[in-house]
Write a structure and sequence with these properties.
The complex is a heterodimer of chains A (92) and B (515). Chain A has 92 residues and is an alpha+beta fold. Chain A has a single domain, classed as Glutaredoxin (3-Layer(aba) Sandwich), CATH 3.40.30.10. Helix content of chain A is 34%, strand content 26%. Chain A contains three helices and four strands, in the order βαβαββα. Chain A has helices spanning 14-31, 46-51, 78-84; strands spanning 3-9, 35-41, 59-64, 69-72. In chain A, strands 2-1-3-4 form a four-stranded mixed β-sheet. In chain A, strand 3 and strand 4 form a beta hairpin. Chain B has 515 residues and is an alpha/beta fold. Chain B has 17 helices and 26 strands. In chain B, strands 6-5-8-9-4-10-11-12-13 form a nine-stranded mixed β-sheet, sandwiched between helices. In chain B, strands 18-17-19-20-16-21-22-23-24 form a nine-stranded mixed β-sheet, with helices on both faces. Chain B starts with a strand and ends in a 13-residue tail after the last helix. In chain B, 50% of the residues are buried. The chains are: A alpha+beta (92), B alpha/beta (515). At the A-B interface, helix 1, helix 2, strand 4 and helix 3 of A face strand 7 and helix 5 of B.
């Protein structure tokens, strides 16, 4: 099953770029190409942030497969990302 | 727009529309700034924050954004419906928007590395732009800290208030405090946003809850100092009682009106003043309700409208009493010259009684207002609240240029003063004392005009009787002293008899020049 992962950022800040880079690396390692990553800049799409009730940036939302999981931060702590997004299962 | 001209320091204010609050703040909240509103749990911070927006929409057509960190927007919508605010309708009309930042159900969000609240700030800015909002309420600071345990949050809150300032909106940010006194907040960020600080209190005073609002500081602009009581009503939300903040700018009138008793008018130098408040004090059964009845009847005879608030007797009892003194309340009520409002004192708080009284006066628009008795209201309040109540009510009555008559019951049958009297005698314009007088084993009644602001009056204590035509004031007690202290001494000496024989006792000629 394909993973659908959304990353919300506020502008192309160093922190945003760091988060994108970290997330891609983790996904490539753990999920091969079985994932779709959507990066949403809330400055351009504020209504999406409103609909999803995003507060902090960067925020990662794993929408599929269920359950929905969220994690915030620049994703520099890989262990917590794997735990928070429940990505262990793909390795089993 | 509810703008008020800038003061000397250039800080404009924004009328909130919250009744009474704009008076004590001299025109509302500092415009374009964020004001911190601090209070303990249950001090009505959320209601205040919501009403700031609701009043803006209702009274000034100013849209508002409500940012909630604690309650979910659905709960807030439901809670506010109780105040008659249809938030869903306002949302549909683009006048109200929620930014729901409350904790979402499900797994707690994990943190991996550095983050900020950029998305939240963008959402708030987006909502403000979408509505063209000029008001923002954020509830509450504590809710932000509950969700994000990070030292970064302090900086983010600073960034948020700076963003609001850039957008030119007037903000309210609620914040919890642990106690009614001491530090205004406990998060250490308050000083960043605290150019302006309001404090709400819900203190327990003599076993009664007393809500107050205080402007702790407004940077660069003036406001009333001290705590002002407020109440929360179903239909109107928060109503602040501005007390003495009502400017005493009413004109003092020289127009006299009849008390309903010609002899009493004579004793007062020609009647009560049209815009004065008279206190009638006496023990139970001395004739306070009778004097009130005469006052109302006097109004009706002059073609005026009167409103009576009765806190001790029922509608039927009052009608029966009046009839026994030859006054037909039923006829007066039938042709709109009288309205009786009978309320059980314990039914509600003093603040709510005051709101009721004001609303009744506004809707009936009388010339005369009587309250029988104030002492009954003392029972439901602390002395401080009671005094504030009387000040506020007196200001309101004088502001509308009405004639007021309040009664107060003294606890002792002979002499003495009532608590009401002790606390309000300096507030009312005139004081009339009714006293039992014991003379040679007989109980008689005496009346004295103790004080009559702005006029000369008789200083004598005169005897009066009561029959089926009402009150009849006779001559003064010439041979008795010590009536006021309750220790009447009958001096049957020949000197008084000799003087009595020399002068005919005509009460209407015994006015003395003012001292």
């Amino acid at each position: 099953m394909k993973y659908v992962i959304k990353l919300y950022i506020t502008g192309q800040t160093p922190r945003s770029l760091r988060a994108i880079e970290n997330l891609r690396r983790i996904c490539d390692t753990e999920l091969d190409d079985q994932y779709e990553l959507v990066v949403i800049d809330v400055l351009e799409r504020p209504q999406l942030a409103e609909d999803e009730k995003i507060l902090a940036t960067p925020t990662v939302v794993k929408e599929l497969p269920p359950p929905i999981r969220r994690i915030i931060g620049d994703l520099s702590d890989t262990e917590r990302v794997l735990l928070g997004l429940d990505l262990w299962s793909s390795q089993v | 727009m509810g703008a008020v001209e800038a003061g000397a320091a250039g800080v404009e204010k924004l009328l909130t529309g919250i009744e009474g609050f704009d008076l004590i703040t001299y025109g509302g909240l500092p415009r374009g700034r964020t004001t911190l509103i601090s209070g303990t749990a249950g001090s009505a911070k959320t209601v205040f924050a919501a009403q700031f927006l609701a009043s803006g929409i209702d009274q000034f057509a100013e849209p508002g954004v409500f940012v909630t960190f604690e309650e979910r927007s659905a709960d807030i919508r439901r809670n506010l419906a109780g105040f008659g605010w249809d938030v869903a309708r306002w949302e549909a009309a683009g006048k109200w928007a929620f930014v729901d930042a409350s904790i979402q159900p499900g797994e707690p969000t994990l943190v991996s590395g550095d983050f900020d609240l950029g998305a939240l700030i963008v959402r708030i800015e987006h909502a403000i732009r979408r509505l063209g909002a000029s008001r923002v309420s954020i509830d509450s600071l504590g809710g932000i800290f509950t969700q994000f345990d990070s030292s970064r949050i302090r900086h983010e809150i600073f960034r948020l208030t700076a963003a609001l300032k850039d957008l030119g909106v007037t903000g309210l940010l609620t914040s919890e405090r642990c106690a009614d006194e001491g530090e205004v907040g406990r998060y250490g960020v308050e000083e960043f946003v605290a150019d302006n600080v309001l404090v709400l209190r819900n203190a327990l005073e003599q076993e009664k809850r007393r809500r107050t609002v205080e402007v702790l500081k407004f940077r660069g602009t003036s406001h009333q100092k001290g705590q002002f009581p407020f109440t929360i009503t179903d239909g109107h939300g928060i109503i602040v009682l501005p007390l003495s903040a009502i400017e005493l700018r009413q004109r003092s009138s020289n127009v006299r009106i009849s008390s309903g008793i010609p002899e009493l008018d004579g004793m007062c130098g020609g009647g009560f003043f049209r815009d004065s408040v008279v206190l009638v004090s006496g023990a139970t059964g001395t004739g306070k309700t009778l004097l009130t009845t005469e006052f109302l009847s006097g109004g009706a005879e002059a073609g005026e409208r009167s409103l009576l608030f009765a806190f001790e007797e029922s509608h039927d009892q009052l009608f029966r009493n009046a009839l026994s003194w030859g006054v037909d309340f039923e006829a007066m009520e039938a042709d709109g010259r009288l309205r009786l409002v009978c309320v059980y004192p314990e039914a509600t708080t003093l603040e709510d009684h005051l709101i009721t009284i004001k609303r009744e006066i506004e809707s009936f628009n009388p010339n005369r207002v009587a309250i029988d008795s104030l002492s009954a209201l003392e029972r439901v309040s602390s002395i401080r609240s009671f005094r504030e109540f009387v000040i506020s009510l007196t200001s309101f009555i004088k502001h509308r240029e009405l004639a007021g008559l309040f009664t107060a019951t003294t606890p002792e049958l002979m002499g003495g003063t009532s608590v009401s009297e002790a606390h309000i005698s300096s507030i009312t314009d005139s004081i009339i004392l009714l006293r039992y007088v014991e003379i040679l084993g007989e109980m008689r009644r005496g009346l004295a005009v103790l004080k009559m602001r702005g006029s000369m009056h008789q200083k004598e204590i005169r005897e009066f009787s009561i029959d089926d035509k009402g009150m009849h004031i006779g001559p003064a007690f010439r041979n008795v002293s010590g009536i006021l202290s309750g220790r009447a001494i009958h001096a049957a000496n020949e000197e008084i008899g000799r003087l009595d024989a020399m002068f005919q006792d005509d009460p209407n000629k015994s006015l003395r020049p003012p001292v």
